[in-house]
Amino acid sequence: MSSWIVNGLVAALFLAAxxxxxxxxxxxxxxLLRGLSPGQASEKSHVYPIYSNMRLIKLVDFQPVISAIxxxxxxxxxxxxxxxxxxxxLKDKNVLVTSCAFGNVLPRVVDAAVRGGAARVVIAxxxxxxxxxxxxxxxxxxxxxxxxxxxxxxxxxxxxxxAANVMFFLLHELPHNLKAQALREAGRMLAxxxxxxxxxxxxxxxxxxxxxxxxxxxxFEPLGLALWDTHDPLDCLEEMGGWTCERTTYFFxxxxxxxxxxx
Length: 263
Ligand SMILES: C[S@@+](CC[C@H](N)C(=O)[O-])C[C@H]1O[C@@H](n2cnc3c(N)ncnc32)[C@H](O)[C@@H]1O
Prior knowledge:
- This protein is an alpha/beta fold and 263 residues long.
- It has helices spanning 3-36, 54-60, 63-69, 74-86, 105-115, 128-137, 176-189, 207-219, 233-240; strands at residues 94-98, 120-125, 145-149, 162-168, 190-201, 243-250, 255-262.
- It has one domain: Rossmann fold.
- The chain has nine helices and seven strands, in the order ααααβαβαββαβααββ.
- Bound molecules: S-adenosylmethionine (SAM).
């Protein structure tokens, strides 16, 4: 093998390994350290530094990186939500986005909601820096959007005043006991007929993908694996009752969008 191929392979391996180490340090590694340090756990203890440290937020939030993390399915997932919003009657109603997310999902969701005639779009997140960062992406909609520091599992909003709620890859990061709580809160805030759009990971159909995905969760995001079985969001919603749900899966079942309509 010629030396430039070997050098190329070594460089690619080094890049992949450093990327893996970086993401481990700013996600699970930091949480493990946090767990070892003295001091009380708070409602923010499960949040990774990549969502709280402004330098890290700005470093990581690049569309190609975020699309790659979601195996280039990001656009399809966001499109499904945006199409759902566009087909709903949002005139003079409120739309909620429960927690910020990287990439262009926020501008696209806000744009769809505003075009649909929504009175206000509320973006709620536990972390102030995430809201500041989200604001920087939504300059054009400043009069229409409220940025609220709030906890998805105990929201301050009143009952039934939301027509649509978008929850983009939040559940897999929540401790298990809070996953169903966040869904209950979503149900409480939705008006009858309102829709919850839930984007999440799902148990892949192909065993190769399942093995890779399992390894990813075990290393980086152990709270996510429960979505495959014990905390399947569709099962949780159906157990809760009062919802009509439809699930679409993507990329050999690796991702899902659940559209849940409150009865
Ligand atoms: C939606 S999740 C991850 C999204 C996905 N990995 C991405 O960025 O594409 C990350 C966001 O959830 C927020 N978050 C975590 N726990 C929360 C809670 N209980 N209530 C509201 N926001 C929360 C974090 O602050 C962060 O902004």
